[in-house]
Amino acid sequence: MVSPLLVVALVHAGVATAFTIVCLVASVVRATPTSRRGASRVFLLRPMEIASPAIVARLLFDARAYSGELVRVWCAPVAIAVPEGVRVAVSGLADDAAQNRKSAHLAAGLALVAAELDERSVVVHADSDVRLLPGDLDALILALDEGLALSFAPPSPSGRLAQAIIALSPQAFAVIAGLSRITGSSPAIAGKLVAMRAPLLDAIGGYACVMHTIGDDVALVEAAKNKGARVLMSDRAALVENHHGVLQVFDQLTRWLRVVRAHRAALLLTYPFLMAPLPIAALLCALANAWPAFFALVVARLLLAVALTRGPYRGRASMLNALLAPVADTLVLLAAARASLRGSIEWAGRRYRVGAGGRILAVERIDR
Length: 368
Fold this sequence. Notes:
7-stranded mixed beta sheet; 3-stranded mixed beta sheet; 43% helix
Protein backbone atom coordinates (compact mmCIF):
# COMPACT_ATOMS: atom_id res chain seq x y z
CA MET A 1 0.00 0.00 0.00
CA VAL A 2 1.33 3.42 -0.97
CA SER A 3 1.91 5.70 1.97
CA PRO A 4 -0.37 8.80 2.01
CA LEU A 5 2.66 10.84 3.06
CA LEU A 6 4.55 9.66 -0.03
CA VAL A 7 1.63 10.67 -2.24
CA VAL A 8 1.51 14.11 -0.64
CA ALA A 9 5.28 14.54 -1.04
CA LEU A 10 5.25 13.46 -4.68
CA VAL A 11 2.25 15.63 -5.56
CA HIS A 12 3.71 18.71 -3.85
CA ALA A 13 7.17 18.30 -5.41
CA GLY A 14 5.67 17.34 -8.78
CA VAL A 15 3.39 20.36 -8.95
CA ALA A 16 6.22 22.67 -7.87
CA THR A 17 8.58 21.16 -10.45
CA ALA A 18 6.02 21.41 -13.24
CA PHE A 19 5.34 25.04 -12.34
CA THR A 20 9.06 25.80 -12.29
CA ILE A 21 9.42 24.29 -15.77
CA VAL A 22 6.54 26.45 -16.98
CA CYS A 23 8.36 29.45 -15.44
CA LEU A 24 11.49 28.39 -17.32
CA VAL A 25 9.60 28.36 -20.62
CA ALA A 26 7.92 31.67 -19.76
CA SER A 27 11.27 33.29 -19.02
CA VAL A 28 12.52 32.66 -22.56
CA VAL A 29 9.31 33.76 -24.29
CA ARG A 30 9.79 37.39 -25.25
CA ALA A 31 7.25 39.90 -26.48
CA THR A 32 8.32 42.24 -29.23
CA PRO A 33 6.79 45.68 -29.86
CA THR A 34 4.92 46.28 -33.08
CA SER A 35 6.84 49.49 -33.69
CA ARG A 36 10.12 50.91 -32.49
CA ARG A 37 9.98 54.55 -33.37
CA GLY A 38 12.01 55.92 -30.44
CA ALA A 39 11.26 59.19 -28.69
CA SER A 40 11.56 62.90 -29.39
CA ARG A 41 12.71 63.55 -25.83
CA VAL A 42 12.90 61.48 -22.68
CA PHE A 43 11.88 62.99 -19.35
CA LEU A 44 13.43 61.16 -16.40
CA LEU A 45 11.62 61.65 -13.08
CA ARG A 46 13.46 60.63 -9.90
CA PRO A 47 11.19 60.58 -6.80
CA MET A 48 12.88 60.79 -3.39
CA GLU A 49 12.21 61.81 0.19
CA ILE A 50 15.67 63.31 0.76
CA ALA A 51 18.68 63.97 -1.43
CA SER A 52 21.20 62.06 0.66
CA PRO A 53 24.85 61.93 -0.45
CA ALA A 54 24.42 58.28 -1.53
CA ILE A 55 21.38 59.11 -3.66
CA VAL A 56 23.06 62.12 -5.24
CA ALA A 57 26.14 60.04 -6.09
CA ARG A 58 23.94 57.36 -7.67
CA LEU A 59 21.84 59.79 -9.70
CA LEU A 60 24.89 61.47 -11.20
CA PHE A 61 25.14 58.40 -13.46
CA ASP A 62 21.81 59.34 -15.06
CA ALA A 63 23.39 61.74 -17.53
CA ARG A 64 24.96 58.77 -19.39
CA ALA A 65 21.94 56.44 -19.25
CA TYR A 66 20.41 57.54 -22.57
CA SER A 67 21.94 58.24 -25.97
CA GLY A 68 19.38 60.91 -26.93
CA GLU A 69 18.03 64.09 -25.37
CA LEU A 70 17.32 63.56 -21.68
CA VAL A 71 15.51 65.95 -19.34
CA ARG A 72 16.25 65.11 -15.70
CA VAL A 73 13.87 66.03 -12.89
CA TRP A 74 14.32 65.26 -9.19
CA CYS A 75 10.99 65.09 -7.36
CA ALA A 76 10.84 65.66 -3.60
CA PRO A 77 8.42 66.88 -0.90
CA VAL A 78 10.50 70.01 -0.25
CA ALA A 79 13.01 72.07 -2.20
CA ILE A 80 16.41 70.38 -2.53
CA ALA A 81 19.75 71.33 -4.03
CA VAL A 82 20.32 69.77 -7.45
CA PRO A 83 23.35 69.57 -9.76
CA GLU A 84 23.64 71.73 -12.84
CA GLY A 85 21.36 70.52 -15.63
CA VAL A 86 18.82 68.94 -13.28
CA ARG A 87 15.41 70.42 -12.50
CA VAL A 88 13.59 70.06 -9.19
CA ALA A 89 9.86 69.49 -8.65
CA VAL A 90 8.38 70.02 -5.19
CA SER A 91 5.23 68.12 -4.21
CA GLY A 92 4.80 69.93 -0.87
CA LEU A 93 3.24 66.74 0.53
CA ALA A 94 2.61 66.78 4.28
CA ASP A 95 4.20 64.06 6.42
CA ASP A 96 0.81 62.53 7.30
CA ALA A 97 -0.95 62.94 3.94
CA ALA A 98 -3.04 59.86 3.12
CA GLN A 99 -1.42 59.45 -0.28
CA ASN A 100 1.22 57.37 -2.00
CA ARG A 101 4.24 59.61 -1.54
CA LYS A 102 6.17 58.35 -4.54
CA SER A 103 3.20 58.97 -6.84
CA ALA A 104 2.60 62.41 -5.38
CA HIS A 105 6.22 63.40 -6.01
CA LEU A 106 6.00 62.02 -9.56
CA ALA A 107 2.79 64.00 -10.16
CA ALA A 108 4.68 67.16 -9.25
CA GLY A 109 7.46 66.24 -11.67
CA LEU A 110 4.99 65.55 -14.47
CA ALA A 111 3.27 68.88 -13.87
CA LEU A 112 6.62 70.63 -14.16
CA VAL A 113 7.29 69.28 -17.67
CA ALA A 114 3.71 68.84 -18.92
CA ALA A 115 3.87 71.82 -21.31
CA GLU A 116 6.93 70.31 -23.06
CA LEU A 117 5.43 66.90 -23.85
CA ASP A 118 4.39 65.86 -27.33
CA GLU A 119 3.08 62.61 -28.81
CA ARG A 120 6.55 61.16 -29.16
CA SER A 121 7.76 62.14 -25.70
CA VAL A 122 8.51 59.38 -23.22
CA VAL A 123 8.27 59.84 -19.46
CA VAL A 124 10.42 57.54 -17.34
CA HIS A 125 10.32 57.22 -13.58
CA ALA A 126 13.07 55.48 -11.63
CA ASP A 127 13.24 54.94 -7.88
CA SER A 128 16.14 56.60 -6.11
CA ASP A 129 17.81 53.25 -5.32
CA VAL A 130 18.11 52.37 -9.03
CA ARG A 131 21.53 52.92 -10.62
CA LEU A 132 21.17 53.66 -14.32
CA LEU A 133 24.04 52.64 -16.57
CA PRO A 134 24.71 53.60 -20.20
CA GLY A 135 22.11 52.07 -22.50
CA ASP A 136 19.58 51.26 -19.77
CA LEU A 137 17.07 53.86 -20.93
CA ASP A 138 17.69 53.04 -24.59
CA ALA A 139 16.72 49.40 -23.92
CA LEU A 140 13.69 50.47 -21.89
CA ILE A 141 12.41 52.78 -24.62
CA LEU A 142 13.21 50.31 -27.39
CA ALA A 143 10.68 47.95 -25.77
CA LEU A 144 7.86 50.49 -26.15
CA ASP A 145 5.11 50.30 -28.70
CA GLU A 146 3.93 53.55 -30.22
CA GLY A 147 0.80 55.21 -28.88
CA LEU A 148 -0.56 53.84 -25.60
CA ALA A 149 2.35 51.83 -24.26
CA LEU A 150 4.24 51.08 -21.06
CA SER A 151 7.52 49.27 -20.51
CA PHE A 152 9.37 48.31 -17.35
CA ALA A 153 12.69 46.82 -16.35
CA PRO A 154 12.75 43.81 -14.02
CA PRO A 155 14.74 44.70 -10.88
CA SER A 156 17.95 42.96 -9.86
CA PRO A 157 18.99 43.79 -6.29
CA SER A 158 22.66 44.04 -5.40
CA GLY A 159 22.35 41.98 -2.21
CA ARG A 160 23.02 38.24 -2.66
CA LEU A 161 19.97 37.00 -0.75
CA ALA A 162 17.65 39.61 -2.25
CA GLN A 163 18.95 38.67 -5.69
CA ALA A 164 18.19 34.98 -5.07
CA ILE A 165 14.60 35.96 -4.26
CA ILE A 166 13.86 38.72 -6.77
CA ALA A 167 15.98 37.80 -9.80
CA LEU A 168 16.64 34.04 -9.72
CA SER A 169 13.38 32.43 -8.65
CA PRO A 170 9.78 32.06 -9.88
CA GLN A 171 9.19 35.48 -8.29
CA ALA A 172 11.44 37.20 -10.82
CA PHE A 173 9.43 39.80 -12.71
CA ALA A 174 10.82 38.45 -15.99
CA VAL A 175 9.09 35.16 -15.13
CA ILE A 176 5.87 36.85 -14.06
CA ALA A 177 5.78 38.88 -17.28
CA GLY A 178 6.28 35.71 -19.31
CA LEU A 179 3.55 33.87 -17.42
CA SER A 180 1.09 36.68 -18.11
CA ARG A 181 1.83 36.44 -21.84
CA ILE A 182 1.35 32.67 -21.85
CA THR A 183 -1.85 32.66 -19.78
CA GLY A 184 -3.31 35.93 -21.03
CA SER A 185 -3.70 37.11 -17.44
CA SER A 186 -3.28 40.69 -16.28
CA PRO A 187 0.43 41.56 -16.27
CA ALA A 188 2.35 42.65 -13.20
CA ILE A 189 5.17 45.17 -13.38
CA ALA A 190 7.96 46.26 -11.09
CA GLY A 191 7.65 49.95 -10.38
CA LYS A 192 11.40 50.52 -10.01
CA LEU A 193 12.03 51.62 -13.60
CA VAL A 194 9.06 52.35 -15.87
CA ALA A 195 8.63 54.19 -19.18
CA MET A 196 5.37 55.49 -20.66
CA ARG A 197 4.61 57.42 -23.79
CA ALA A 198 2.99 60.78 -23.14
CA PRO A 199 -0.37 59.79 -24.74
CA LEU A 200 -0.79 56.99 -22.19
CA LEU A 201 -0.05 59.28 -19.25
CA ASP A 202 -2.59 61.72 -20.64
CA ALA A 203 -5.17 58.94 -21.08
CA ILE A 204 -4.91 57.68 -17.49
CA GLY A 205 -4.83 61.14 -15.95
CA GLY A 206 -1.17 61.14 -14.99
CA TYR A 207 0.21 59.85 -11.72
CA ALA A 208 -2.76 61.27 -9.86
CA CYS A 209 -4.68 58.10 -10.76
CA VAL A 210 -2.47 56.01 -8.45
CA MET A 211 -1.86 58.48 -5.62
CA HIS A 212 -4.43 56.97 -3.27
CA THR A 213 -3.28 53.33 -3.38
CA ILE A 214 -0.42 51.63 -1.56
CA GLY A 215 0.61 49.53 -4.57
CA ASP A 216 1.28 52.23 -7.15
CA ASP A 217 2.75 49.75 -9.65
CA VAL A 218 -0.32 47.50 -9.36
CA ALA A 219 -2.68 50.44 -9.86
CA LEU A 220 -0.60 51.83 -12.72
CA VAL A 221 -0.68 48.65 -14.79
CA GLU A 222 -4.42 48.29 -14.18
CA ALA A 223 -5.01 51.87 -15.35
CA ALA A 224 -2.85 51.26 -18.43
CA LYS A 225 -4.63 48.03 -19.35
CA ASN A 226 -8.03 49.69 -18.90
CA LYS A 227 -7.01 52.11 -21.65
CA GLY A 228 -5.92 49.30 -23.96
CA ALA A 229 -2.20 49.90 -23.51
CA ARG A 230 0.33 47.17 -24.19
CA VAL A 231 2.67 46.36 -21.30
CA LEU A 232 6.17 45.21 -22.28
CA MET A 233 9.43 44.43 -20.54
CA SER A 234 12.94 45.71 -21.20
CA ASP A 235 15.58 43.11 -21.98
CA ARG A 236 17.93 44.75 -19.45
CA ALA A 237 17.29 44.45 -15.72
CA ALA A 238 17.44 47.52 -13.47
CA LEU A 239 20.26 47.50 -10.93
CA VAL A 240 18.87 48.17 -7.46
CA GLU A 241 21.43 49.05 -4.82
CA ASN A 242 20.32 47.60 -1.49
CA HIS A 243 23.04 45.95 0.55
CA HIS A 244 20.61 44.76 3.22
CA GLY A 245 21.12 42.05 5.81
CA VAL A 246 18.79 39.13 6.39
CA LEU A 247 16.51 41.01 8.81
CA GLN A 248 16.22 43.98 6.47
CA VAL A 249 15.36 41.70 3.55
CA PHE A 250 12.78 39.94 5.74
CA ASP A 251 11.14 43.26 6.69
CA GLN A 252 11.17 44.38 3.05
CA LEU A 253 9.57 41.11 1.94
CA THR A 254 6.91 41.38 4.64
CA ARG A 255 6.04 44.91 3.54
CA TRP A 256 5.90 43.84 -0.11
CA LEU A 257 3.69 40.83 0.65
CA ARG A 258 1.37 42.96 2.79
CA VAL A 259 0.91 45.15 -0.27
CA VAL A 260 0.16 41.99 -2.26
CA ARG A 261 -2.37 40.96 0.39
CA ALA A 262 -4.04 44.38 0.19
CA HIS A 263 -4.51 44.05 -3.57
CA ARG A 264 -4.69 40.30 -4.25
CA ALA A 265 -4.82 38.34 -1.00
CA ALA A 266 -5.33 34.98 -2.75
CA LEU A 267 -1.83 35.17 -4.21
CA LEU A 268 -0.33 34.49 -0.77
CA LEU A 269 -1.75 30.97 -0.94
CA THR A 270 0.48 30.12 -3.90
CA TYR A 271 3.76 30.67 -2.06
CA PRO A 272 4.10 27.31 -0.21
CA PHE A 273 3.23 25.36 -3.36
CA LEU A 274 4.55 27.34 -6.32
CA MET A 275 6.57 30.45 -5.60
CA ALA A 276 8.73 29.26 -2.66
CA PRO A 277 8.21 25.50 -2.35
CA LEU A 278 11.70 24.24 -1.44
CA PRO A 279 11.42 24.12 2.40
CA ILE A 280 8.12 22.23 2.43
CA ALA A 281 9.23 19.96 -0.42
CA ALA A 282 12.44 19.12 1.46
CA LEU A 283 10.52 18.31 4.65
CA LEU A 284 7.90 16.16 2.93
CA CYS A 285 10.43 14.33 0.75
CA ALA A 286 12.64 13.65 3.77
CA LEU A 287 9.74 12.23 5.78
CA ALA A 288 8.52 10.12 2.83
CA ASN A 289 12.02 9.20 1.58
CA ALA A 290 11.17 10.69 -1.80
CA TRP A 291 14.46 12.44 -2.49
CA PRO A 292 14.41 11.98 -6.29
CA ALA A 293 11.30 14.19 -6.46
CA PHE A 294 13.06 16.87 -4.42
CA PHE A 295 16.20 16.69 -6.54
CA ALA A 296 14.08 17.10 -9.67
CA LEU A 297 12.67 20.32 -8.20
CA VAL A 298 16.16 21.57 -7.32
CA VAL A 299 17.41 20.88 -10.86
CA ALA A 300 14.41 22.72 -12.32
CA ARG A 301 15.14 25.74 -10.11
CA LEU A 302 18.78 25.78 -11.16
CA LEU A 303 17.83 25.59 -14.83
CA LEU A 304 15.43 28.50 -14.31
CA ALA A 305 18.23 30.54 -12.74
CA VAL A 306 20.50 29.73 -15.70
CA ALA A 307 17.83 30.92 -18.15
CA LEU A 308 17.31 34.15 -16.20
CA THR A 309 21.03 34.96 -15.99
CA ARG A 310 21.26 34.45 -19.75
CA GLY A 311 18.24 36.68 -20.35
CA PRO A 312 17.38 40.10 -18.92
CA TYR A 313 19.57 39.55 -15.84
CA ARG A 314 22.70 38.86 -17.91
CA GLY A 315 25.64 40.53 -16.15
CA ARG A 316 23.27 41.81 -13.44
CA ALA A 317 22.72 38.68 -11.37
CA SER A 318 25.18 36.00 -10.33
CA MET A 319 24.32 32.35 -10.92
CA LEU A 320 26.12 31.54 -7.65
CA ASN A 321 23.38 33.34 -5.73
CA ALA A 322 20.90 30.72 -6.97
CA LEU A 323 22.54 28.35 -4.46
CA LEU A 324 20.85 30.41 -1.74
CA ALA A 325 17.44 29.29 -3.01
CA PRO A 326 16.57 27.12 0.05
CA VAL A 327 17.36 30.00 2.42
CA ALA A 328 15.56 32.45 0.13
CA ASP A 329 12.41 30.30 -0.07
CA THR A 330 12.38 29.84 3.71
CA LEU A 331 12.59 33.59 4.24
CA VAL A 332 9.81 34.18 1.70
CA LEU A 333 7.51 31.66 3.44
CA LEU A 334 8.15 33.26 6.84
CA ALA A 335 7.43 36.70 5.39
CA ALA A 336 4.24 35.41 3.72
CA ALA A 337 3.07 33.93 7.04
CA ARG A 338 3.80 37.21 8.80
CA ALA A 339 2.11 39.23 6.06
CA SER A 340 -1.03 37.06 6.23
CA LEU A 341 -1.55 38.24 9.82
CA ARG A 342 -2.99 41.62 10.59
CA GLY A 343 -0.29 44.25 10.47
CA SER A 344 0.38 47.75 9.25
CA ILE A 345 2.57 48.61 6.29
CA GLU A 346 5.59 50.68 7.25
CA TRP A 347 7.74 52.52 4.75
CA ALA A 348 10.09 55.52 4.88
CA GLY A 349 9.34 56.29 8.52
CA ARG A 350 5.56 56.10 8.12
CA ARG A 351 2.86 53.63 9.07
CA TYR A 352 0.05 53.12 6.54
CA ARG A 353 -3.46 51.95 7.33
CA VAL A 354 -4.86 50.38 4.18
CA GLY A 355 -8.39 49.44 3.16
CA ALA A 356 -9.93 47.34 0.41
CA GLY A 357 -8.08 47.30 -2.88
CA GLY A 358 -4.99 48.81 -1.29
CA ARG A 359 -6.54 52.23 -0.75
CA ILE A 360 -4.59 54.35 1.74
CA LEU A 361 -6.87 55.36 4.62
CA ALA A 362 -4.45 57.03 7.03
CA VAL A 363 -0.74 57.70 7.42
CA GLU A 364 1.11 58.13 10.70
CA ARG A 365 4.63 59.42 11.06
CA ILE A 366 6.75 57.11 13.20
CA ASP A 367 10.09 57.91 14.81
CA ARG A 368 12.96 55.50 14.38
